[in-house]
């Protein structure tokens, strides 16, 4: 149970802590005040929709939002936000009390209406006795971080400032759901910090916060150059939120170099250089993903591992002890060097890079599956599905493959992003 509670803390909400940051023509203070109201915890129930709202306008269902915001809906459905409430969370809710569950839901399904549906499903205290109203779909809690979690408060719609040159509605035009209140906060990194930054008093392992993404960004050149989270993770305002689960995003962030030099007839020197050239935070930022880098010597009848390195922060499944922290800070680099004995013949050195976006969950779910024999069939089934999904997120980046030079002192190099 301790490990399950620990993961609830890992997945819990990190309240924005009043960070100051340049925000263009809208004052920093005004953005901070808006965010304090917008992300006040817990988010208040929406209440009864205005009588002027048609059913589609009043609904909190993402599918209804998508009737007008089609591209955003399609993007969101491909994102991890739409899967924030999956089997990995579902099985744990079977083992949590309401307080522990709400710690997870504050980021994974934060609306009051989503919490109410979960409470009804789990039989938690103070769960609503009646069915949800018409504007709340009965599966809203299982849809994860829905549109309304960011864009709707008290049935008022909120969104980013207008794009320069975008058309405005003519005066007197009736807009769906009364239009939207626009605020520069939606383009500010602090908007994301609500869930991607633990407060200073948050859970620490080895003296370091488990989630410190906003602060990592704030100390980087990306922040000094005015590049916010949304610039990389929501390009052109696309609702994609790609990260380490996406091979292209990882390729843009991680730079890899391989150098092979012949020392003499029986030896070579292998150098691997790894650099964070694209991420505005540590790579990877969180304790869950790992990047596994392996160098192999391949030749006639042989396939030998000559070097291994893990990029990531590894903690135990109870989130109590840190095993290692080999992440790459923004613009950081790390060099590995190996002396290798090479028999006569034609040989190659191959650098293989495997990304395991859910490595911590793989270990945690496997540990629970082996240790918890008391789980009922439904919970165990969800756990097994979560474990399978975690393992299925692994992928490989392009290899670097170099032929070992024959002449003493000769060197070959390869580069990949």
Furnish the topology, listing elements before pairings.
Blueprint: H1 2-11, H2 28-38, H3 55-58, H4 62-65, H5 70-77, H6 87-93, H7 98-108, H8 112-122, H9 147-151, E1 152-153, E2 156-159, E3 180-182, H10 189-196, E4 204-205, E5 208-209, H11 213-218, H12 221-224, H13 229-233, H14 247-253, E6 254-264, E7 267-276, E8 290-299, E9 302-311, E10 313-315, E11 322-325, E12 333-341, E13 348-356, H15 359-371, H16 377-392, E14 395-396, E15 400-403, E16 411-416
Concise synopsis of the structure shown:
The chain is of the alpha+beta class and 417 residues long.
Description:
It contains 16 helices and 16 strands. Helix 1 packs parallel to helix 7, helix 6 runs antiparallel to helix 16 and helix 15 runs antiparallel to helix 16. It folds into two domains: 195 residues, no CATH class; 135 residues, Immunoglobulins (Immunoglobulin-like). It has 417 residues and is an alpha+beta fold. The protein starts with a helix and ends with a strand. Strands 8, 9, 13, 14 and 15 form a five-stranded antiparallel β-sheet that branches. The protein has a four-stranded antiparallel β-sheet with strand order 12-7-6-16. The protein has a three-stranded mixed β-sheet with strand order 1-2-3.
């Amino acid at each position: 149970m301790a490990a399950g509670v620990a993961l609830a803390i890992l997945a819990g909400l990190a309240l924005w802590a009043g960070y100051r940051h340049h925000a263009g023509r809208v004052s920093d203070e005004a953005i901070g005040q808006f965010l304090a109201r917008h992300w006040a915890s817990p988010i208040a129930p929406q209440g009864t929709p205005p009588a002027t709202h048609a059913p589609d306008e009043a609904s909190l269902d993402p599918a209804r939002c998508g009737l007008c915001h089609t591209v955003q809906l399609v993007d969101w459905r491909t994102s991890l936000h739409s899967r924030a409430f999956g089997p990995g969370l579902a099985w744990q809710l079977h083992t949590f009390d309401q307080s522990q569950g709400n710690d997870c839901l504050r980021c994974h399904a934060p609306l009051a209406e989503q919490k109410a549906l979960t409470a009804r499903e789990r039989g938690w205290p103070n769960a609503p006795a009646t069915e949800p109203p018409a504007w709340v779909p009965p599966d809203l809690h299982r849809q994860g971080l829905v549109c309304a979690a960011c864009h709707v408060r008290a049935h008022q719609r909120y969104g980013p400032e207008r794009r320069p040159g975008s058309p405005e509605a003519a005066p007197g035009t009736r807009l769906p759901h009364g239009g939207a209140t626009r605020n520069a906060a939606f383009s500010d990194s602090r908007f994301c910090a609500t869930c991607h930054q633990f407060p200073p008093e948050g859970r620490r392992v080895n003296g370091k916060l488990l989630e410190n993404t906003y602060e990592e960004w704030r100390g980087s050149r990306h922040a000094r150059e005015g590049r916010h989270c949304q610039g990389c993770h929501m390009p052109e305002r696309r609702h994609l939120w790609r990260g380490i689960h996406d091979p292209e995003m990882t390729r843009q962030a991680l730079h890899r170099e391989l150098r092979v030099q012949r020392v003499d007839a029986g030896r070579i020197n292998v150098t691997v250089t790894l650099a964070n050239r694209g991420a505005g935070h540590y790579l990877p930022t969180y304790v869950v993903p790992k990047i596994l880098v392996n160098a192999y010597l391949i030749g006639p009848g042989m396939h030998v591992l000559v070097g291994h390195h893990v990029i990531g922060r590894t903690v135990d499944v109870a989130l109590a002890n840190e095993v290692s922290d080999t992440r790459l800070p923004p613009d950081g680099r790390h060099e590995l060097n190996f002396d290798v004995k090479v028999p006569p013949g034609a040989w190659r050195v191959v650098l293989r890079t495997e990304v395991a976006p859910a490595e911590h969950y793989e270990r945690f779910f496997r540990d629970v599956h082996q240790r918890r024999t008391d789980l009922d069939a439904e919970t165990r089934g969800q756990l097994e599905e979560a474990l399978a999904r975690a393992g299925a997120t692994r992928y490989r980046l392009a290899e670097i493959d170099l032929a070992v030079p024959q002449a003493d002192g000769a060197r070959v190099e390869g580069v990949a992003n």
